[in-house]
Amino acid sequence: MHRPVPLACSAAALIVAIALPVAAQEAPALLFPVDCTLGETCFLQQFVDHDPSPGARAFDCGPQSYDGHTGTDIRTADLEAMAAGVAVIAAADGVVRGLRDGVPDGGTATMQDGQGCGNGVAVTHPGGWETQYCHLMEGSIFVREGQAVAAGAPLGLIGYSGQTEFPHLEFIVRHEGRVIDPFDAETADSCDAPPASLWAEPLANPGGGILSAGFAAAIPELADIAAGRADTGAIPARGEALVIWGFVHGGRAGDVVTLRIADAEGGQVHAQDVVLERTQAQLFRASGRRSPDGGWPPGIYQGEVVLLRDGTEIDRTATAVLVTP
After folding, report:
1. pLDDT tens digits, one per residue of 205-253
2. pTM for the whole thing?
3. Close Cβ partners of 20 (under 8 Å, ≥ 6 residues apart)
4. How far, in Å, are 28, 48, 157, 183 from residue 126 at the CA level?
5. C-alpha separations of 232 from 217, 228, 264 in Å
6. Can you give the residue ranges of every domain in the chain?
7. What CATH number does the domain located at 11-180 have?
8. Tens digit of pLDDT for each residue in 99-141?
9. Residue 234 and residue 239: Cα distance in Å, rounded?
10. CATH number 2.40.10.10 is the correct assignment for the domain at 209-324
């Protein structure tokens, strides 16, 4: 049996990391650890907690973290997207120190004690640095213990194993055992100074976005959206209703989710602005209209979901559905 990958550091260890920052120039230049396109096939959901109190604060002083969180969460839109296979890669040259496989992809509900990281890989790097890759897909790990890996080498696939409520990679960086935020290695206790990033290429946080959107004949269940089975390609003209939904990550209190439907001729069928009442890591909103007497005119209907924050557009996505006779 392979040596288990240690779980993420505690909140106490995080406080030490903030109190004793390391020089960013001593760190390896890190590749983004997922082979994906940010905002399209993967999304930044949560970051290292920089608040030593029971509260939480991300590197940019925003709310995309939770108390004691020690990693960067890079997610897929849903379980269907995860199942298609999204590669996790080594962020820098190193040696595989340990790994674990065999944890089911069932999230927190199916994990056992000591399996918080789920299936994972730990890689050591020169100078006392280590990267850890958690929640990988069962059976997807490509490397072995003691193997030398080059930056960019595939390690496994994003999964849903261990202590998690959504499919993602939790990417953890440590220096001599202390947790380091790759987005800000030195100025963690300041909201004014520019962050000391460890990324080899500039990497910005959009502050949330739209994971997916689609149409349904009724308001869908969150479980169906999270699984990737809520969207339908066709709705009968005389069905119950025409509903558009949007799945959002990083929503903040006061954000506005705009949902619009246009008919086959481009005329507006429905539009609603929904104001979010609280900050949530993930959420969905849905809106629509009951089918009129005689049903909808057949054709391809267009939908649009927009996320606005203080009047500024954060993200926008389009979707479509065929209304059948």
Report:
1. 999 999 999 999 999 999 999 999 999 999 999 999 999 999 999 999 9
2. 0.90
3. 178
4. 8, 23, 25, 20
5. 8, 10, 17
6. 11-180, 209-324
7. 2.70.70.10
8. 999 999 999 998 888 899 999 999 999 999 999 999 999 999 9
9. 11
10. no
